Amino acid sequence: MLVSARDMLIKARDGHYAVGQFNINNLEWTKAILLTAQEMNSPVILGVSEGAGKYMTGFKTVAAMVKAMDECLGITVPVALHLDHGTYEGAKACVEAGFTSIMFDGSHYPIDENVAKTTELVKLAHDNGISIEAEVGAIGGEEDGVIGAGEVADPAECAKIAGLGVDFLAAGIGNIHGKYPANWKGLDFEALDAIHKATDNIPLVLHGGSGIPTEMVKKAISLGVSKVNVNTECQLTFAAATREYIEAGKDLEGKGFDPRKLLAPGVEAIKATVKEKIELFGSANKA
Ligand code: 13P
Q1: Which residues line ligand 1 (CB under 6 A)?
Q2: Centroid of ligand 1 to alpha carbon of 206 (angstroms)
Q3: CA dihedral for 253, 259, 265, 268, sign (positive or negative)
Q4: What is the pTM of this model?
Q5: Is 84 among the residues known to form the active site?
Q6: Residue whose CA is closest, atom 5 of ligand 1?
Q7: Residue 210: what are its φ and ψ, rounded to 5°?
Q8: Which tens digit of pLDDT belongs to each residue from 122-141?
């Protein structure tokens, strides 16, 4: 059932668990995540980056596929179709295409411009009955493997953006997208606590959810994180399972080259990863 992410995240915040955002890249990814969320009776958020949207030929294609798949699979758990790290233009395009949630990442703008653009998009999202996430304090990405810490957001800036009426807020607390480097300093729980206290109980979002030790994830949830984003871990498990299939020569046996067979181990690997995360985040049976 396609819905805004607002209510599921308020429920998560009040229930002290988190809902997973799993990024999608194609039909296989979408199907694996939807089926697992249904099996676990868990709410779920499908994340679509601008790049993934382009890869799938546009946000309209994505929205049409997700809507039809949700219906054809008989999915009854709440599912939000969410733009991940949207630009100003991308956010508008996703509202138009029928997404049920958007993220506007204005973290690279000076704070005043982030405020102005976020304000406009909050109105647009809410006029259309969908939820909106904003970001303060850019969340770094793996560049050369030498980054030891992600950026940490300023609680006063977080309060300013949270006060604009966004439904949930991504704030940097030392987290990084992609694989964590060996010299990573870990999440900054003091910063998280200060941000949580400054932002009037708004559901907080932890980006870069792949590869964070489970105890750190649990602690972050206990300190106000209600949404955890996972992308890289599904990509890694998909790739490893596909590699194993091919290295075992299975694509050369019988009809093993059929994409429905070739991609099946990867799909099962995504399902296992999503299941593990839903258990860790505590959202099973919270649909
Ligand atoms: P990872 O790829 O590190 O899991 O991060 C996902 C994410 O935060 C998407 O916004």
Answers
A1: 23, 47, 84-85, 177-178, 207-210, 229-233
A2: 9
A3: negative
A4: 0.96
A5: yes
A6: 208
A7: -75, 130
A8: 999 999 999 999 998 777 66
